[in-house]
Amino acid sequence: MGAIRVDGDSPTLAIIKTELQLAANGFLDKNLPLAFDHQEEAARLIISKQTPSGWDPSAKGSLGREGYRLLKNDAGVVWVAADTDIGLLYGTFKFLQLMQTGAGIPESGYHSEPKIQHRILNHWDNLNRTLERGYAGASIWNWHRLPDHIDQQYHDYARANASIGINGSVVTNVNANALVLTPEYLEKAAALADVFRPYGITLYLTARFSAPMELGRLPTADPLDPGVQQWWKDKADEIYRYIPDFGGFLVKADSEGQPGPHNYQRSQADGANLLADALKPHGGIVMWRAFVYSEDTPDDRAKQAYQEFQPYDGSFRDNVIVQVKNGAIDFQPREPFHPLFGAMPQTPLMMEFQITQEYLGQATHHVFLPSLYTEVLQSDTYVNGPGSTVSKVIDGSLHGYSLTAMAGVSNIGTDRNWTGHHFHQANWFGYGRLAWDPEISPETIADEWLRLTFTNAPEFIEPVKKMMLQSHEMAVNYMTPLGLHHIMAWSHHYGPGPWVTDRHRDDWTSTYYHKASENGVGFDRTASGSNALEQYAPELQAQWGDPKRVPEKYLLWFHHVPWEYTLQNGRTLWDEMALRYQKGVDEARQNVATWESLESYVDEERHAHVFSFLEIQAKEAAWWRDACLLYFQQFAQSPLPEGVEKPEKELEYFMGIRHRYVPGN
């Protein structure tokens, strides 16, 4: 790395030089000043948009705004090539990653371009620095000190995101505060945008639908009212004066108390188009969330988003993209893919994943989420025949969308390790990698992250990678096996709560979803029940509607099944449920032993921290098992099968557990 040429002069190219200097110091464990202006014939590393002398001009090809190519000639000289400075930054990060992991550049070169245009983190961060569903400390955005003080963490944040290909950040909560649209806060947001810009990251804000009334003192926020339309156009003009490259708005409307077009008997398309028209002259987009459900308890909440949006396919402006959660309920440990994917061929849809673990053990449970994400992305919608995967919907290839995006609800905060649990960094990393390329495998992501974070030693990599790759299925087993869902504790969702009932909304209770009785358990979503299955393609209706053909991981999602029902392995439903809970506990305990045995490969501080969290996870996996099996056993009226540990406490003990001041609420 000693002889380098970086062509050009821009803030982004200055970042590239800094990254190379940091890498040289880190790789060699000493300060090695680098020069970046070597003549081409002397340089061993060339970072340039131009073709170096002696290289074939056709070798680079067209790479677009963010693509890059790594090339190596017979003399071993490396050329990081791109069409833009941002492409060069991405290429430099990839070059450094290959160096650190010992992979090297293939003889044929390495080429990469993102398959998704807008790869965005959603921060559910409030202006007072609290976080909704955040488990890693306070919000990193110190609005009180902005714009005059720029914390180093903002640069570190942008750097980390750019290194994994994330190019957008919504810095405010979807349960929006209109205050962020005032000049005072726009000046603060502009300061963040200035930090993000050289890293290729665009800033977005959440828009509160009632802002014209709250800020503009208008008597209405009706999207068809001319005064409201003008207010939003003026507000958009104002925002772009502060932030010329502002990305646009993320909107949560008509959901969980948030105002929206329903307040005026208007459609979701009416609401989204109002903001889209205001942003259109500036090139901004609207990400309109599909997480909408009635104030009245429905027969099946899983059906509501489809009913709200699908009839309006083709009615949205071309700068609107509908943001759809991976499943139809709410970021459960496992859900079938959302039925809207594939059902709106004339309206761009984007994926919303949750990186923060609201329903998956929060800060202390190790769950490698790229396994969950990939399960959803590779699900076949069948809408255009076999092979119509969810990933092809969101990357635009299935329906020809010209606007594509993916969102991940952030898991970071002010904790020293950013994410609370060291291994939760892998979920942030993995989200970025999948947003760039939805086809990349969880195995590849886990391998990359472990090598970049800990060591290249195979004696460490292989057992820990196995631990990571089985962690999602493990958590599903000790929380919600066989298609159970939404049986967490009330409100904060920390720990088990299958007994939760009699709240002001039935669909915020556990009993609404599992419907356990002496006759069986599960939510009938077939034609004999809510018929939510009707929202999927006929091929899936035929398969999932048959309890003998539905994948057993979705059995209780779609069917109400007797306790004595015989599964494919010959076990009864009750026995299989109990054994899966036990399997999850056994694997959580094994993870503790595995990690303990690898102490020599990890520094003492990180090893101890991860070890303590794995012990918590194993303890709480047993809590989940005991609480859920005791609860369901009163309906199944059967003994625990051989191999399942008998709970040491009674059901009443578990029902009496109360956790106060749980983070993220």
TrEMBL record:
<dbReference type="InterPro" id="IPR011395">
    <property type="entry name" value="Glyco_hydro_67_aGlcAse"/>
</dbReference>
<dbReference type="Pfam" id="PF07477">
    <property type="entry name" value="Glyco_hydro_67C"/>
</dbReference>
<dbReference type="InterPro" id="IPR005154">
    <property type="entry name" value="Glyco_hydro_67_aGlcAse_N"/>
</dbReference>
<dbReference type="InterPro" id="IPR037054">
    <property type="entry name" value="A-glucoronidase_C_sf"/>
</dbReference>
<dbReference type="GO" id="GO:0005576">
    <property type="term" value="C:extracellular region"/>
</dbReference>
<dbReference type="Pfam" id="PF03648">
    <property type="entry name" value="Glyco_hydro_67N"/>
</dbReference>
<dbReference type="Pfam" id="PF07488">
    <property type="entry name" value="Glyco_hydro_67M"/>
</dbReference>
<protein>
    <recommendedName>
        <fullName>Xylan alpha-1,2-glucuronidase</fullName>
        <ecNumber>3.2.1.131</ecNumber>
    </recommendedName>
</protein>
<keyword id="KW-0326">Glycosidase</keyword>
<dbReference type="GO" id="GO:0033939">
    <property type="term" value="F:xylan alpha-1,2-glucuronosidase activity"/>
</dbReference>
<keyword id="KW-0378">Hydrolase</keyword>
<dbReference type="GO" id="GO:0045493">
    <property type="term" value="P:xylan catabolic process"/>
</dbReference>
<keyword id="KW-0624">Polysaccharide degradation</keyword>
<comment type="similarity">
    <text>Belongs to the glycosyl hydrolase 67 family.</text>
</comment>
<dbReference type="InterPro" id="IPR017853">
    <property type="entry name" value="GH"/>
</dbReference>
<feature type="active site" description="Proton acceptor">
    <location>
        <position position="358"/>
    </location>
</feature>
<dbReference type="InterPro" id="IPR029018">
    <property type="entry name" value="Hex-like_dom2"/>
</dbReference>
<comment type="subunit">
    <text>Homodimer.</text>
</comment>
<feature type="domain" description="Alpha glucuronidase N-terminal">
    <location>
        <begin position="3"/>
        <end position="95"/>
    </location>
</feature>
<dbReference type="InterPro" id="IPR011100">
    <property type="entry name" value="Glyco_hydro_67_cat"/>
</dbReference>
<dbReference type="InterPro" id="IPR011099">
    <property type="entry name" value="Glyco_hydro_67_C"/>
</dbReference>
<feature type="domain" description="Glycosyl hydrolase family 67 catalytic">
    <location>
        <begin position="100"/>
        <end position="418"/>
    </location>
</feature>
<keyword id="KW-0119">Carbohydrate metabolism</keyword>
<dbReference type="GO" id="GO:0046559">
    <property type="term" value="F:alpha-glucuronidase activity"/>
</dbReference>
<keyword id="KW-0858">Xylan degradation</keyword>
<feature type="domain" description="Glycosyl hydrolase family 67 C-terminal">
    <location>
        <begin position="419"/>
        <end position="644"/>
    </location>
</feature>
<feature type="active site" description="Proton donor">
    <location>
        <position position="256"/>
    </location>
</feature>
<feature type="active site" description="Proton acceptor">
    <location>
        <position position="330"/>
    </location>
</feature>
